[in-house]
Specification:
Layout: E1 14-15, E2 18-26, E3 30-36, E4 42-48, E5 54-55, E6 64-65, H1 70-88, E7 98-104, E8 107-113, E9 117-119, H2 120-129, H3 138-157, E10 170-173, E11 178-180, H4 185-191, H5 219-235, H6 242-247, H7 251-256, H8 264-273, H9 285-292, H10 305-324, H11 326-332
Antiparallel strand pairs: 1-2, 2-3, 3-4, 4-8, 5-6, 7-8, 9-10, 10-11
Helix pairs in contact: 1-4, 3-5, 3-9, 5-8
């Protein structure tokens, strides 16, 4: 099969009573379109179209799947459909609203509210480029993730996992709501089957157990990703990915440079969430919410003059190294 990505549906295509306006985004597992209903109301429609399993020529409607990949394609299709059914039962401001889902063109479509705004990743990049001591204020970080955790708790209560929480999948709407988008149920099902080797995780935000097929996933897996997102909101960059951390863990060193900038408690929360051992992390969203809301815990370590000089020196050396490999970093992370 060609490695050329499947072509999106052409503008003005009608599916399930909706008219496609344009493609909004595309990833390894699907395409998201802006679409209008018969009354002209805008919606986002996500189409199941895994690029490693299916192809589609320009102007065509039906995906083309090689016979030897058909069973895997259908397995992901079933998971995508079940994900839509489960999400449709959840009504929470911090969880993307699935309003409808249907089968057509030998695939499945998920109809969601169209959100206007930007992703947390967009905001991190903008804030980082301003080169301020803090990417975000601590109060902003706590408020944002308290909102996300309220939605994630509901998701877990419905026996679902997100499995791809990252700044690019946290959407900040123009009316100041934080919404989790792009759940990864189909991605996870496909990763467990046969020799399907396409990466199923986002480096830096995926917990160590997501790299092993024999590991048990649970709320602690999403909680690791939450910790990584908080880290990115503090540092402006993703943490090292799990395999790198297992080989040589620099998380504590990186966070130590933020002492005096962010409270000891917030730094400890990140370390707790991102423990390499799943059993050492918060085992439920409720446990994490309780710790994150502790107003009395916001102590700041008093750094000595020597410590400040050393950290400043380390920062200059680190910035020099970052500049040398900036093109590579920006090409692979936080594009």
């Amino acid at each position: 099969m060609s490695k050329v990505k499947p072509s999106p549906l052409p503008p003005d295509t009608m599916i399930g009573g909706y008219r496609i306006e344009r493609k909004l985004s595309a990833g390894g597992f699907g395409v998201v379109y802006l679409a209008l209903d018969s009354e002209g109301q805008q919606f986002a429609i996500k189409e199941y179209l895994p690029s490693s399993l299916a192809s589609r020529a320009v102007g065509e409607l039906l995906p083309q799947v090689l016979p030897e990949k058909l069973s895997l394609y259908r397995l992901g299709l079933k998971s995508f459909f079940e994900e839509g059914r489960s999400l449709a039962q959840i009504s929470h401001g911090s969880v993307v609203s699935v309003l409808n889902f249907f089968r057509e063109n030998e695939t499945v479509y998920m109809v969601m509210n169209y959100l206007e705004g930007g992703t947390l990743q967009d905001f991190i990049i903008t804030a980082r480029d301003l080169k301020k001591p803090k990417v975000f204020r601590e109060s902003t970080i706590r408020s944002l993730f308290d909102e996300i955790l309220r939605g994630l708790r509901i998701v877990h209560q419905h026996k679902m996992l997100h499995l791809d929480i990252k700044p690019a999948n946290i959407f900040i709407t123009d009316d100041n709501r934080a919404v989790m988008i792009d759940f990864g149920a189909a991605r996870e099902v496909l990763s467990k089957e046969g020799n399907f080797i396409r990466p199923m995780y986002t480096p830096g935000f995926a917990a160590p157990e997501m790299y092993r097929r024999d590991s048990s996933l649970g709320p602690w897996t999403d909680i690791y990703a939450i910790g990584a997102c908080i880290y990115a909101s503090m540092q402006g960059y993703p943490p090292n990915d799990a395999p790198q951390r297992i080989d040589k863990d620099r998380l504590s060193l990186a966070l130590s440079r933020l002492r005096g900038v962010y409270s000891d408690n917030l730094i400890e929360v990140v370390q707790w969430c991102m423990a390499l051992d799943p059993l050492a992390r918060p085992q439920s969203v409720f446990a994490l919410q309780k710790e994150l809301s502790r107003e009395s815990a916001r102590r700041y370590t008093k750094l000595t003059v020597g410590e400040r000089v050393r950290l400043q020196f380390d920062s200059v050396v680190s910035d020099t190294k970052k500049t040398a490999r900036k093109a590579n970093v920006m090409g692979t992370r936080f594009k």
